[in-house]
């Protein structure tokens, strides 16, 4: 499946099936990876919401939300700002300069590297 099987309207993802998935924040970016739609939400500045990456199946079911990272929650505003694939793995970068490798099946963080 690809992006032609759904479209984005602000906070809503409208799937080819007619199902709608609605989020609390606008959708910034999506990526089809490992048979699911990875969704990155656009978090407003100074809003503490650091778990803004989700996996959705093509029926509209939420499969996971990225694992909570306690150390970054203590910092405050540190949402994810991009999602991409690298060496057949799902990676996401956050506002605080970390690169996360994410298990696409569970949303668990398997590696965290400071990049700045």
Explained architecture:
It is a single chain. The chain has 116 residues and is mainly beta. The protein has one domain: Lipocalin, CATH 2.40.128. 5% of the residues lie in helices and 48% in strands. The strands form three sheets. A four-stranded antiparallel beta sheet has the order 4-5-6-7, with no helix packed on it. Strands 8-9-10-11 form a four-stranded antiparallel beta sheet, with no helix packed on it. The chain has a three-stranded antiparallel beta sheet with strand order 1-2-3, with no helix packed on it.
Question: Secondary-structure element sequence?
Answer: EEEEEEEHEEEE
What number of domains?
1
CATH architecture field:
Beta Barrel
Secondary-structure class:
mainly beta
The CATH topology corresponds to Lipocalin
| Low-confidence runs of at least 5 consecutive residues | none
**Main sheet specs:** 4 strands, antiparallel
Q: Main sheet: which strands, in order across?
A: 4-5-6-7
> Roughly what percent helix?
under 10%
Number of helices: 1
CA(first)-CA(last) distance: 35 Å
């Amino acid at each position: 499946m690809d992006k032609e099987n759904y479209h984005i309207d602000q906070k809503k993802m409208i799937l080819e099936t007619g199902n709608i998935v609605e989020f609390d924040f606008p959708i910034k970016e999506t990526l089809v990876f490992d048979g699911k739609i990875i969704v990155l939400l656009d978090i407003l500045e100074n809003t503490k919401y650091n778990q803004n990456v989700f996996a959705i199946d093509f029926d509209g079911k939420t499969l996971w939300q990225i694992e909570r990272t306690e150390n970054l929650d203590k910092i405050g505003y540190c949402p994810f700002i991009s999602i991409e694939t690298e060496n057949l793995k799902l990676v996401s970068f956050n506002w605080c300069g970390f690169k996360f490798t994410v298990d696409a099946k569970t949303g668990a963080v398997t590696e965290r590297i400071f990049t700045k």
